[in-house]
């Protein structure tokens, strides 16, 4: 693969001022680091940079600014919106070497880490002290702190703990010009004007590069119960959720998936369903605490009232992991067993039922006879809509049809006050639809922020908004 040309004087300056292993143009590395999980765009970066410190990032950005070289910040590349794709000769700035995790502050319940620290590694770093950073996803083994923050990632525990931004006290950020900003430190309270840290959380690397973060920690949860229920359809998923909200327990996760998702997981991972009879949908519920007798009474009533058709409770950590694996293997299994078009949408929880009741009509009219794999975090209003490519349809035709069909679903999202992206961001895939969620005045303000913080447009160009 031929790589796009970078300015010779820029490459010379890199060689003279940064470590010898800082930059690579090796074709395999370009392929690997030029893409994320979307696999829609052909990667074509000009080079990949591997800094070890914030100082190296800052010196690198000074050179990029001087030579007008575009930069794509890169973490674990687990995003599904094309936000970490480098397809036009940009330099990928990978933070994979920036994995330092400092000792915990056990009085303030915080920890400072570099942006390349892996999510699961942070969990393991904190666990011996009885603490955790409660940001959790299926991709926790490869997603990084910097990427989580840059996309304000959600995940499976949002119903209990909220989004990533709730668990970030301070940020260290390098601007497009190479200036290093220390934003908020480890302060819980700082009422001194606009909270600049929030500008960078969820900005997908378009306004600055997050290099370190001070994370807020909480106590590890106590005993957790994990249940898997079988229900006939999405309407039943929502009825059970309404009931679980009033149950004598604390919900930490409420996930659902359809039978089509389960079939793909079983095909790819060879995992076994705990139920003999198939069902239209499944609910994975995780809870903390609660009076055991009251919980037992509630569980029994679910069958008596016809809210579930079958169910099982994990007996121990091993079985809990097995139940969770049915849910957490879905994205991987869908990608491994077919070509698909993904959507990640959210609705106000109160509007979910009305939205889902109308969603079937959209599928029937836009995807007649096509396989739809639906799953999501019902507890926070987040649905993942996956349309699988029929064997008889060419790939290019499939994506063209799917993108056009998105307008009908996004019209419905807008009607019910939702968002076209719940947790994967806008990146390249969603930017043509941003006006379904954002008003013209908001878009103007976003463009003004981009121009103010990145006047040359070199940070993750083309993501979220065109210049």
TrEMBL record:
Q: Which InterPro entries match?
A: FAD-bd_oxidored_4_C, FAD-bd_PCMH, FAD-bd_PCMH-like_sf, FAD-bd_PCMH_sub1, FAD-bd_PCMH_sub2, FAD-linked_Oxase-like_C, FAD-oxidored/transferase_4, Oxid_FAD_bind_N
- The residues covered by the FAD-binding PCMH-type domain are 41-220
Pfam families, A to Z: FAD-oxidase_C (PF02913), FAD_binding_4 (PF01565)
| Keywords tagged on the record | FAD, Flavoprotein, Oxidoreductase
Q: Which domain of life is it from?
A: Bacteria
Cofactor requirements of the protein: FAD
Q: Read off the Gene3D superfamilies from this record.
A: 3.30.465.10, 3.30.70.2190, 3.30.70.2740, Uridine Diphospho-n-acetylenolpyruvylglucosamine Reductase, domain 2, Vanillyl-alcohol Oxidase, Chain A, domain 4
Asked whether the UniProt record includes Flavoprotein among its keywords, one would answer yes
PANTHER family attached to this UniProt entry: D-2-HYDROXYGLUTARATE DEHYDROGENASE, MITOCHONDRIAL
By sequence similarity, the record places it as follows: Belongs to the FAD-binding oxidoreductase/transferase type 4 family.
Q: What is this protein called?
A: FAD-binding oxidoreductase
